[in-house]
Design goal:
The protein is of the alpha/beta class. It is globular and about 65 Å long. The strands form 4 sheets. Strands 4-12-11-10-7-5-6 form a 7-stranded mixed β-sheet, sandwiched between helices. It has a 4-stranded mixed β-sheet with strand order 1-2-3-15. The protein has a 3-stranded antiparallel β-sheet with strand order 13-14-16. It is built from 13 helices and 16 strands. Bound molecules: pyridoxal-5'-phosphate. Pyridoxal-5'-phosphate binds near residues 111 and 143. Pyridoxal-5'-phosphate (PLP) binds near residues 110, 143, 208 and 238. Pathway: Cofactor biosynthesis; biotin biosynthesis; 7,8-diaminononanoate from 8-amino-7-oxononanoate (SAM route): step 1/1. Belongs to the class-III pyridoxal-phosphate-dependent aminotransferase family. BioA subfamily.
Length: about 425
């Protein structure tokens, strides 16, 4: 009998994985709270919320019950010309917690599609009002997903290199990280013109680009400047949404409201795939016409899947509970204290925190051979300690589910301290 991992290796191609050199995949048999239970009996503390999607812990019984009930009622239906309770209720409950100018919910089924839809809404908005605009501004090192439009507005890197000839042109602004704000704003003065259709950002925290963090004041200024040219502002909150930054949405730190928002990942508590693009009345209205050519011709087979919407409604119940807000605050306080401890390490630099997201760089200009492949060394070391953290290059970060206990946080912190001790040698 072949093991699960051997069977996998015979038939599966994994995401973001060099299949020739990748170690055998680790079979997970069960999840509960912040712990993944492995086939070999080990436990793995999930400090990255399983690729940033999980909010309330794995296999949450409340979400499971709601999903099971929905499965027995209506598993799926076409969403053109038809509707259903979970989709309407989710839209009704989302809009009041979003920035006050958001008026409409458009469903898709993942973060990349949520971004594609936002870009198409933005481009077609200008087309529909008869003033086509062709330019887009984005941040360097941005990550907005892996489909072509989403890749095009992402920072260009080794990941996008094979596709470079197929990606539409985008103008990049450096991220206004602390100390660079004035320089970025000055550059922005020349980049933002009446030709820019949209400015897309991951507000306050760039995820995949390395957990780069910047201040609300800097983004407010850029948004305000872009807006003087009528440019549509797209907040990609696929990662930052649903409490990660300490507020329900990173956009709530801003006084300038985005015109379009992209949501996914945590929206279902990490249970099901669901994407949402939201927009203002002005954008929605630009598609209303007796002229069929002004229609947004976009949709996916699993648009507004009722089971995914049911999972999202259940997750929202859990998220808006007072105890959850207390959990988020508890994690923030713990992280802040641990950040102070990290400051004492000579191999740690650029410690940064926004809400429940804590990140730092492992300094790589040391002398030992570890530093040549520090990412792999750190990753494997932590896995062996039973802690799942997946460094982005030399950047280590915590993105725990909100149910993570203080004891579990301490286990993860201690594993990181052990790693630092090893690297300091
Ligand atoms: C993950 C991510 C996406 C893409 O979402 P997928 O569901 O993986 O397609 C888009 N934007 C941001 C900011 C993300 O972190």
């Amino acid at each position: 009998m072949n093991t699960l991992s051997q069977r996998d290796q015979a038939v599966i191609w994994h995401p973001f994985t060099q299949m020739q050199t990748a170690p055998a995949p680790i079979p997970v048999v069960r999840g509960e709270g912040s712990v993944l239970y492995l086939e070999d009996g080990r436990e793995m503390l999930d400090m990255i919320s399983s690729w940033w999607v999980n909010l309330h812990g794995h296999s949450h019984p409340y979400i499971a019950d709601r999903v099971a009930a929905q499965l027995r009622t209506l598993e799926h239906t076409i969403f053109a010309d038809f509707t259903h309770e979970p989709a309407v209720q989710l839209a009704e409950r989302l809009l009041p917690i979003l920035p006050t100018n958001q008026r409409r919910i458009f469903y898709s089924d993942n973060g990349s599609t949520a971004v594609e839809v936002a870009l198409k809404m933005a481009f077609q908005y200008w087309h529909n009002i008869g003033q086509p605009r062709l330019k887009v501004v984005a941040f360097e090192d941005a990550y907005h997903g892996d489909t072509f439009g989403a890749m095009a507005v992402g920072g260009r890197s080794a990941f996008t290199a094979p596709f470079a000839p197929f990606l539409f042109n985008v103008t990049y602004l450096p991220v206004p990280v602390p100390g660079r704000e004035a320089e970025v704003l000055e550059l922005a003065q020349t980049l933002f013109t009446d030709e820019v259709a949209a400015f897309i950002v991951e507000p306050l925290v760039q995820g995949a680009g390395g957990m780069n963090m910047y201040e609300p004041a800097a983004l407010n200024e850029l948004f305000a400047l872009a807006r003087t040219h009528g440019t549509l502002l797209i907040a990609d909150e696929v990662m930052t949404g649903f409490g990660r930054t300490g507020k329900l949405f990173a956009s709530h730190y801003l006084t300038e409201q985005p015109d379009l928002m992209c949501l996914s990942k945590g929206i279902t508590g990490g249970t099901m795939a669901l994407g949402v693009t939201t927009c203002t009345a002005a954008i929605y209205d630009a598609f209303l016409s007796t002229d069929k050519m002004k229609t947004l011709f976009h949709g996916h087979s699993f648009t507004a899947n009722p089971i995914a919407c049911a999972a999202a409604l259940a997750s929202m119940d859990l998220l808006l509970d007072e105890d959850r807000l207390a959990d988020i605050q508890r994690i923030i306080t713990r992280h802040t204290a641990f950040a102070d401890r990290l400051r004492q390490s000579p191999v740690v630099g650029n410690i940064r925190q926004r809400g429940t997201l804590l990140a730092f760089d492992l300094i790589t200009n040391g002398q030992t051979s570890y530093f040549n492949n520090i990412r792999d060394v750190a990753y494997q070391f932590l896995l062996e300690k039973g802690v799942l953290m997946r460094p982005l290059g030399n950047v280590l970060y915590f993105m725990p589910p909100y149910c993570t206990t203080n004891t579990q946080l301490q286990v993860a912190y201690d594993a990181v301290l052990a790693l630092l001790t090893k690297l300091e040698d």
